[in-house]
Design goal:
Layout: H1 12-23, E1 31-34, H2 44-59, E2 63-68, H3 78-90, E3 99-101, H4 106-118, E4 122-125, H5 129-135, H6 153-165, E5 174-177, E6 192-196, E7 210-212, H7 214-224, E8 229-233, H8 240-250, E9 256-260, H9 272-280, H10 295-301, H11 305-315, H12 326-340, E10 343-344, E11 346-347, E12 350-355, E13 363-369, E14 379-385, E15 387-391, E16 412-414, E17 419-427, E18 433-440, E19 457-459, E20 461-463, E21 467-475, E22 502-511, E23 522-525, E24 529-533, E25 544-550
Helix pairs in contact: 2-11, 7-8, 11-12
This protein binds one RNA strand of 75 nucleotides through helix 5, strand 6, helix 7, helix 12 and strand 19.
Length: 558
RNA sequence: UGGGGUGUCGUCAAGCGGUAAGACACAAGCCUUUGGAGCUUGCAUUCCCAGGUUCGAAUCCUGGCACCCCAGCCA
């Protein structure tokens, strides 16, 4: 990824790296890595990490690897590695040929483990999982050493080999590091390095029945890859002493680990477990549901890679726990699309308008800029006729104060076209308004009055004869609470799913050209927001649009 | 009550002993053929609290307080 940002970023991680470069701490160039576990789809929190790791590598002339931490075959799947690769690439980053897997290092890790056994720093333990927990002690009390802690090197080597050969059932024995059962840091109380798991691995198949724990695999994987800066989240801060211990005992390359706070966003959840739950319970249509905070969901919603990168830049990186307001993300995509998206008129909740004094068969066309923010995007002609649709919300019989759209007394401008005035409200038997009869003023052609009179409101419209029917999906926050994980009000996060997070409008009237709009392209529907031509469901005869984000609305706020 | 972290505007976040950046949000006004966009202005006399050092402290020291993480053969 090219770094075309002229301002130098000064977050604490980059500061540390600058110091390391200046002090010559690492002789070769900067190496980072993005190390996901392929057990779910990537979300916007991962995007923060991806932008950080790949961004730093690019800024400092280094490289960033993509490495899958695939040490638990019971949870990992090829589907996830495929989605992760797609998402990282879509975000605009390139790991070139450096696609690695912790499982690439299983043989090396096995040899490293033998080395620790040789040094008397690791042992095979026969305790059950429950017993290990009991022996571990508590936060305030030291643990007790395993009775198997002092087996001989030869016995350990033999037993470890037999574990590998598959002689024992799942969980029968473990390999543990021999460190300090009295350490105040629980991670140092003889942590498990290997467990027996007779499970097929998505890459190594049946080759192994013992699998390294993350804590045993991660640091060594970074070391093997020559990573200089292992950037990870806060919860690994007190694992660092353990990683340091392994590396030191092994005498291998020592990366510098730096921890930062993971991302939390209002009105959504970020844990993979909860996201999976939403998918399983069919509360959303899948990992890529447009309301999901996953990269694939945001993509499906219509966010651009650029908008996600801009977001990552704006929120910064630090160590304090934080919750970023979703409005920051929304503003990023708005800011970008304001400059990029062609404008078009779309009536979402149509109300028929007949211009009683307009000639029956007449049609005329008005010229308009495709994007007033970027005139190079050209102009187009919008057809106009006697029978139109306007937004139901743009007419009010008993308007609240400050309302300056169409009312029995307010004259309004049909954007680009004419001023109109209400003549008659037509209702059906039940009293429901079915259409409006209005008059237009021929002396306001183009939307400008010859006598210079002004009008407060300008509304959008679509000529009935020149429209295309469309389906429009209005998306909103998935949850109705800022922090859905906060259940102090008695509602758990399933209970706070926003029932209006997706509203489907099936009788929308759009400018006819929208029937030909390319799937995946983005438009601004005037006065509504930014919309994506649905990449899956849209068809020329029946276009489908997804709302990416609404426009700011100073009136609705009142 | 063990260990590891963190506390600066409503929300993020700069600040690194010389007198509180920026962004989002919010508010007011201007402008407007999108109540959009744009523009202008306002928005922490104060940095968790209390002491101390210093000519000078958000920054250094001491002591509190609050919040987050850790007792998976998950990552």
């Amino acid at each position: 990824m090219e770094n075309n940002d002229s301002t130098v970023k000064t977050d604490f991680i980059r500061e540390i790296i600058r110091e390391d470069i200046n002090s010559g701490r690492f002789s070769s160039g900067i190496m980072t890595r993005f190390p996901p576990e392929p057990n779910g789809y990537l979300h916007i929190g991962h995007a923060k990490s991806i932008c950080l790791n790949f961004g730093i590598a690019a800024e400092f002339g280094g490289k960033c690897n993509l490495r899958f931490d695939d040490t638990n075959p019971t949870k990992e799947e090829q589907e996830y590695v495929d989605s992760i690769k797609e998402d990282v690439r879509w975000l605009g980053f390139d790991w070139e040929e450096r696609e690695y897997y912790a499982s690439d290092y299983f043989d090396q890790l096995y040899q490293y483990a033998r080395k620790l056994i040789d040094k008397g720093k690791a042992f095979v333990c026969d305790l059950t999982a429950d017993q290990i927990r009991d022996f571990r002690g508590t936060l305030t009390q030291p643990g007790k050493g395993s009775p198997y802690r002092n087996r001989s090197v030869d016995e350990n080597l033999a037993l470890f080999e037999r574990m590998r050969q598959g002689e024992y059932p799942d969980g029968f024995r473990t390999l543990r590091a021999k460190i300090d059962m009295a350490s105040p840091n629980l991670n140092l109380r003889d942590p498990v390095m290997y467990r027996i798991l007779h499970a097929s691995h998505h890459r190594t198949g049946e080759k192994w029945c013992i699998y390294p724990m993350y804590d045993w695999a991660h640091g060594q994987s970074d070391s093997i890859e020559g990573i200089t800066h292992s950037i990870c989240t806060l919860e690994f801060e007190d694992h660092r002493p353990l990683y340091d211990w392994f590396i030191t005992e092994l005498g291998i390359h020592h990366p510098r680990q730096i921890e930062f706070a993971r991302l939390a966003l209002t009105y959504t959840v970020m844990s993979k477990r909860k996201l999976l739950e939403l998918v399983k319970r069919k509360i959303v249509s899948g990992w890529d549901d447009p309301r999901m905070p996953t990269i694939s969901g945001l993509r499906r919603r219509g966010f651009t890679p650029e908008s996600i990168r801009l977001f990552a830049e704006r929120i910064g990186v630090a160590k304090r726990d934080s919750m970023v307001e979703i409005s920051v993300l929304e503003d990023c995509i708005r800011e970008l699309l304001n400059k990029q998206a062609p404008r078009v008129m779309a009536v979402l909740r149509p109300l028929k308008v007949v211009l009683v004094n307009y000639p029956d068969e007449k049609t005329e066309e008005f010229e308009t800029d495709n994007n007033p923010e970027d005139l190079s995007m050209g102009k187009r002609l919008v057809p106009f006729s006697k029978l139109l649709y306007i937004e139901r919300e743009d007419f009010s019989e008993n308007p609240p104060k400050g309302y300056f759209r169409l009312t029995p007394t307010n004259e309004v401008r049909l954007k680009h076209a004419y001023f109109i005035r209400l003549k008659e409200v037509v209702r059906d038997g039940s009293g429901e308004i079915v259409e409006l009869h209005c008059t237009y003023d021929p002396d306001t052609h183009g939307g400008e009055a010859k006598d210079g009179r002004k009008v407060k409101g300008t509304i959008h419209w679509v000529s009935a004869a020149h429209s295309v029917d469309a389906e429009v999906r209005l998306y909103d926050h998935l949850f109705s609470k800022e922090d859905p994980e906060d259940d102090s009000d008695g509602r758990d996060f399933f209970g706070s799913v926003n029932p209006d997070s997706m509203i489907t409008l099936k009788e929308c009237k759009l400018e006819k050209s929208m029937g030909q709009a390319a799937k995946g392209s983005r438009f601004q529907f005037l006065r509504h927001g930014y919309f994506l031509v649905d990449p899956v469901d849209s068809k020329p005869e029946r276009p489908v649009f997804d709302r990416i984000v609404s426009l700011k609305d100073a009136w609705k706020k009142k």
